[in-house]
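Ticket opened by: R.M.
Priority: normal
Category: complex prediction / small molecule

The reporter submitted a protein together with FSX and asked that the result be attached to this ticket for the collaborator who will pick it up next week. Submitted input follows.
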Amino acid sequence: MADHDSLEHRLAEQGISRRAFLKFCAAMASLMALPPGSAVAIAAALAKAKRPSVIWLSFQECTGCTESLTRSHSPTLESLIFDMISLDYHHTLQAASGFAAEKSRDDAMQAYYGKYLLLVDGSIPTKDGGVYSTIAGRSNLDLLHEAAKGAAAIVAVGTCAAFGGIPMAKPNPTGAVAVSDLIKDKPIINISGCPPIPAVITGVLAHYLTFGELPALDELGRPKAFYGETIHDHCYRRPFYDQGKFAKTFDDEGARNGWCLYELGCKGPTTHNACATTKWNGGAGFPIEAGHGCLGCSEPNFWDAGSFYAPLPAPSADVTTIAEVAAVTGAAAAVALSALDRAKKKRAQQAHEKLTVKDL
Ligand code: FSX
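Result attached by the on-call engineer:
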């Protein structure tokens, strides 16, 4: 007998072909860097998966995270994944308003206690009892604590929820903090980016539906499959970096020839995200491809980490450790890598690539 709650049944109802579904599963397997052959296992697991209840709370943010998810082209991985979940509360996307909206959240929290996924975007203001952001007269702080209690896991969507983001930038007038600063007794996954890449959000949801658990995380709670490497690792301008060819202005000959934007402030070497591989707008491109350096938006404190247009500190020719690199941070340092001799340049690059935003 058909399971009317299963994804398989819902996709069939909506006329989504088996072929399109398998293509989606193959794309998910590739996005999550799973071994070849995993697509079939994903398809089998997803087809039988029940739609988990998802409650999405939006706090101090610009709605860019939701925009990111909804501004993709159709039919998309994103639209497919939303057929896989029951989005029971999302105050931007839901039709209900007022008391009906608040009731739908309460009902879902009660009916799926211990089982629902809680997605949060935006940071949480804590100063003065959290009065700086309220929904239906209740502080974000209060709403988060209430919804976190019955959640199976929490997904912090966007840099604001993951690390505090722009609302937490100096002087942080509202006392904004990240979800993980407040909730200590639930699994939390951080999907950083301001905004995050839509396919990363859906990839994490697909992983949860397939395996019933969150994917492997890095030391900042981000899924390794998407944040395990830097933008620099996969940047198409990387060969120019390796050759020491850097654009000096945004419209010089080097810029026109696609040379590396490192000297114009690109934060690709210290930024962990999948922009260079997953790309944006249906794979059309990513900021560096549009001629602008990476701002480092998926890293903690990116807004306060210095000018977006100042080059990352370059290590001196003789440094070999991160500590030594940190010691020269901010020095007149901008020893051009291109000026170093070959062996020294290699060592300097290796040290440079080990830098993280925390070292700046
Ligand atoms: Fe923050 Fe998201 Fe940047 Fe904006 O919800 S991560 S300001 S794109 O909207 O939270």
